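Structure first, sequence second, as always.
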């Protein structure tokens, strides 16, 4: 039996959560013993999101084979056991690039190249390319029904049902059922219009996922079913949740997987969602909390750090603690009176990024963590900045910098990857994908991984300059991870510090809620220990002050109140 297909479309408005819905469907089908893979179609004309601004597109998710892809692929990997590769994300730009290459080569034998059949055939080929050795392929079509850009993709999936047969394809449409406060009602008209638009291009949805802030009543489901020509049981409430890892459980309680199996004529054992139930219970019942300060360049648009945010939460799950994230704009640390922004954090993290903006603030944040013994985790740019800060303030290398920020620096402790010198194009020209590293025994990294050889995903243009290795190591920087041939430095640590680690790769891309990444687990563990020591010291200081002065109460959470705030008179 060949693979079967689920096509996920969205209507009314964008950002309804098609990616999470698709990923959750994958987890439900895996819980029934089926093997799934997923594909994201993006209708924009960029070949990939690698050169797009984080403020426009959000995070660029990197796969093992070095593809720069949409952030929804991160959801797919976090919710399922499927491993995403380059072929699991396809843009309109890549489709057209392939077609034009074929046309220039003469592959079409002089024919007129048109949207139908040439563009739609290329889209269908992309779907079938990933269909081997799986039971179900879930295809998410980006954009909103009615957009001009997505029409070729919708036509292609319409043709797929014609070619594969009715019981080999299911159409799932995600739509909005808004609650109108003035009337106190949920309104179904946007959903009706969205389905009408879909039917006009020849697609009748089999299942409706209705995004809403409350459960739909049986009467509302019956109304939607009547006007949209679907069974009542195929109208699924996609209710807002507190935590994204509740989504599979909500959809399971609504019977989404039962409807998909009905449409695809599949017969499986009953689903087993116990792992997900246990996970959600741990999230809702933490034994403690930590506060992590992320000093970044794109904190105004947090989708830029989607995988990072989730990986921190996974690290908290590993220790049964809640992780509170404080977003610190790097440029906000460049002025006066900046230290208060980091005063209450239990760990500092500097993530990846490109360009000079915000670098002085990042260096200040790193110096704060290093000198005050606050756990520090630097990722990609965060590792490079840690090296720069150490070279300047510990080794005394005045003006030490990266050639990315200052090409004429007297001490280029970070410089452009040697194989990229002379290459000025930006798209796909970085060190990308999975690379192996060997770790130093006894290091923070080796203790976290429990192994001396690892493989992690990369996305960078600049590297550690090993010409400065001897001087930096002599002053206390430890190089604990390198490529097997010794060419590239992968991980640095500071020996005289409770937990200070910078890595050149992006560990957040391989973290899962059910299997948290070792480095994030270790970082959150160190931050939790630091928090206990910090609050214990504050409590002891308050007790001592109370013995001698008679006041010094602690507020909830261990924050000492000022005289005025605690009610004490001057």
């Amino acid at each position: 039996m060949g693979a079967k297909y689920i096509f996920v479309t969205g209507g009314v408005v964008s950002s309804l959560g098609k990616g999470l819905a698709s990923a959750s469907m994958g987890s439900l089908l895996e819980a029934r013993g089926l093997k799934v893979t997923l594909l994201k179609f993006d209708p924009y004309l960029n070949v990939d999101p690698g050169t797009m601004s984080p403020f426009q597109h959000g995070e660029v998710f990197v796969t093992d084979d070095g593809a720069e892809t949409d952030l929804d692929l991160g959801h797919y990997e976090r919710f399922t056991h499927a491993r995403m590769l380059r072929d699991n994300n396809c843009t309109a730009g890549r489709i057209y690039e392939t077609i034009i290459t074929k046309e220039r080569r003469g592959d079409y034998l002089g024919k007129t190249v048109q949207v139908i059949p040439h563009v739609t055939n290329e889209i269908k080929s992309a779907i079938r390319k990933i269909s081997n050795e799986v039971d179900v392929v879930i295809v998410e079509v980006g954009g909103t029904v009615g957009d001009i850009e997505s029409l070729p993709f919708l036509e292609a999936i319409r043709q797929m049902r014609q070619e594969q047969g009715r019981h080999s394809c299911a159409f799932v449409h995600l739509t909005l059922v808004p609650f109108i406060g003035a009337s106190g009602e949920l309104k179904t008209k946007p959903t009706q219009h969205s389905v009408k638009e879909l039917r006009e291009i020849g697609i009748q949805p089999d299942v409706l996922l209705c995004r809403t802030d409350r459960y739909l009543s049986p009467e509302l489901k019956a109304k939607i079913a009547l006007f949209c020509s679907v069974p009542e049981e195929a109208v699924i409430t996609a209710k807002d949740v507190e935590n994204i890892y509740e989504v599979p459980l909500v959809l399971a309680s609504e019977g989404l997987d039962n409807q998909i199996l009905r449409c695809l004529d599949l017969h499986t054992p009953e689903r087993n969602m116990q792992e997900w139930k246990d996970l959600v219970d741990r999230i809702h019942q933490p034994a403690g909390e930590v506060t992590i300060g992320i000093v970044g360049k794109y904190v105004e648009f947090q989708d830029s750090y989607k995988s990072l945010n989730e990986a921190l939460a996974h690290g908290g799950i590993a220790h049964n603690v809640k992780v509170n994230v404080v977003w610190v704009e790097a440029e906000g640390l460049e002025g006066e009176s900046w230290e208060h922004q980091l005063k209450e954090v239990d760990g500092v993290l500097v993530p990846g990024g490109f360009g000079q903006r915000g670098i002085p603030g990042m260096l200040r944040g790193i110096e704060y963590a290093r000198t005050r013994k606050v756990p520090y985790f630097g990722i990609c740019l965060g590792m490079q900045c840690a090296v720069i800060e150490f070279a300047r303030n510990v080794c005394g290398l005045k003006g030490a910098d990266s050639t990315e920020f200052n090409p004429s620096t007297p001490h280029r402790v970070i410089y452009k990857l040697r194989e990229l010198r002379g290459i000025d194009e930006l798209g796909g020209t970085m060190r990308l994908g999975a690379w192996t590293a060997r770790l130093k025994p006894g290091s923070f990294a080796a203790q976290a991984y429990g192994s001396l050889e690892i493989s992690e995903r990369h996305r960078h243009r600049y590297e550690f300059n090993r010409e400065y290795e001897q001087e930096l190591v002599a002053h206390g920087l430890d190089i604990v991870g390198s490529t097997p041939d010794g060419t590239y430095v992968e991980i640095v640590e500071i020996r005289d510090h409770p937990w200070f680690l910078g890595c050149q790769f992006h560990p957040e891309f391989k973290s899962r809620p059910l299997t948290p990444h070792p480095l994030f687990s270790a970082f959150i563990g160190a931050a939790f220990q630091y928090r206990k020591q910090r609050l214990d010291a504050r409590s002891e200081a308050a007790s001592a002050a109370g013995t001698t002065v008679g006041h010094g109460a602690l507020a909830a959470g261990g924050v000492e109140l000022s005289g005025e705030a605690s009610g004490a008179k001057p």
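Margin note: Confidence is low (pLDDT under 50) at residues 548-570.
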